[in-house]
Amino acid sequence: MRIAIALLSGLIFGIGLALSGMASPDKVIGFLDLTGRWDPSLAFVMGGGLVVAMPFYWLAARRGTALCGDALGEPGERAIDARLLGGAALFGIGWGIAGLCPGPALLDLAVQPLAAGVFCAAMLGGLLLSRRD
Amino acid sequence: MEVAPFSLVEPLAGGALIGLAAGLLRLGTGHIAGISGILRLGVRGPDRGWQVAFLAGLLLAGLAAAAQAGPRLAAGLEKASLTALVVGGLLVGIGTGLGNGCTSGHGICGLARFSKRSLAAVAVFMGMAFLTVLIRRLGGWL
């Protein structure tokens, strides 16, 4: 059941990402670039995502457990510290350089395997290097 | 500032589907749909079954979208230099690893559960991304 839900969630997530236009670095940079003609699309993607996700999160928190019976996962860290803010800053710089964040990069493997593959390999290297799991 | 012509339908519908996917995963399984974390743990996790399933769904969606939309799905990626791809990828990986989340984990899931940590992270990565693009513009690298 958990596996089926995760597969379906990944599928819907990817279709949404593709439909939103955010798999295109041009579209993302169009939002991040305030010097030319600004494209506000990404704000509506995030807004739309938040509005739909919130009631599910609220319902899950009210129930206290997930429908499959598992506990709700909570991030271990609580503090707003240098690690969080420094990491977010590095992520923002990388996002602004390539116009890709993790989801779109994985999606783009299907259309531009070489360019997206280089980005994803570097990203995965960075992810695995930055933490000890 | 001039606003470029844009359509509301695709961003809102696409965003709504992303929210639905994140909500479904949370309510159904209790997990958080943060792509950077799912990717990391899917490759190197103690119990990585659900992460692998989620990633398979995401990659499948990529194939479907590629068949439907073709190259315009990733418009602009063809212009990226090798340096931009490597440096950008490394920074995105290290940054989301240290900061414990990306646009989905902090931006959608974190904000949906009113996490102050996520709000701080979103403010910082958005601010830095705007600043990075501004510097690229001013330097003539964009």
Describe this structure in words.
- The complex is a heterodimer of chains A (133) and B (142).
- Chain A has 133 residues and is an all-alpha fold.
- In chain A, 69% of the residues lie in helices and 2% in strands.
- Chain A has 2 domains: 1-72, no CATH class; 82-133, no CATH class.
- The two termini of chain A are 26 Å apart.
- Chain B has helices at 9-29, 35-43, 49-69, 82-99, 105-112, 116-139, and one strand at 2-3.
- In chain B, α2 (35-43) crosses α3 (49-69) and α5 packs antiparallel against α6 (116-139).
- Chain B is globular, with a radius of gyration of 17 Å.
- The chains are: A mainly alpha (133), B mainly alpha (142).
Task: Write a brief caption for the model.
With 133 residues, chain A is mostly helical. Chain A is built from six helices and one strand.
| Proportion in β-strands of chain B | under 5%
Number of domains of chain B: 1
Number of strands of chain A: 1
Structural class of chain A: mainly alpha
H and E string of chain B: EHHHHHH
Which parts of chain B are unreliable, with pLDDT below 50 for 5 consecutive residues or more? Answer: none
Into which percentage range does the β-strand content of chain A fall? under 5%
What is the helix fraction of residues of chain A, given as a range? 55-70%
What is the number of helical segments of chain A per DSSP (H or I, 4+ residues)?
Answer: 6
The dominant shape of chain A is globular
The gross shape of chain B turns out to be: globular
Biggest beta sheet attributes of chain B: none
Total beta strands of chain B: 1
List the domain count of chain A as a whole number: 2
Give a quick account of the main beta sheet of chain A: strands, pairing sense, barrel closure.
Answer: none
